[in-house]
Every structure is written in C-alpha cells, then in structure tokens.
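As a warm-up, study this chain.
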Amino acid sequence: MTKRDYVAIASVILEELRSGGDKTTLGNIVEGLCDVFHEDNPKFSREVFSRASGFDKQSAPLSRGSTSRGATSRGATGRGANTQPPSLGRSIGSI
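Now compare it with the structure written out below.
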C-alpha cells in the first residue's frame, strides 16, 4: 500500500466518525487496520494513522470540537467530499 492509500482510508474513517458513526466500531476498525498496515509496512505509524482517523493513540475518539493536526471540524474535510484536510497528508508523512 502507498501513503495515498493510508490517507484515503483515514479520511473515510474521519468522515464517518464526524457524521455520527459508532465510535466503538470505528475504533475497532482503526485498530484492526493498524495491525494489517503494520504487517504490510513495518515503518507504519499506528499513532499517526489513528490521529488522522480521528482517534488518539489509545483509540479513544477525539471530541468533535478537537482537531487532528489541523483537520477542521467543518464536515468531513471542510472543503468538499473528494479532498482531504490540509494537514492530513502531512500527518501521515511518517507512515
């Protein structure tokens, strides 16, 4: 997988979380994906991906008012369905 794939997946999870998706289920999905991604890429950063997906390092969802490294709280991305938050790509840079 590529960084672009990780960014796209994190964006979808973040959008679902912000639109009221079940926090427990989404947290479990993030944890499971982190396991798969780490197997694929040993340099994959679970913490960075979790934060970009809207969860802190313990997979507890960030509050709706919180931001994840610059992501806005205006809808999924604040700029349209097919774009990512301005810092999402940078926040996953170490993945």
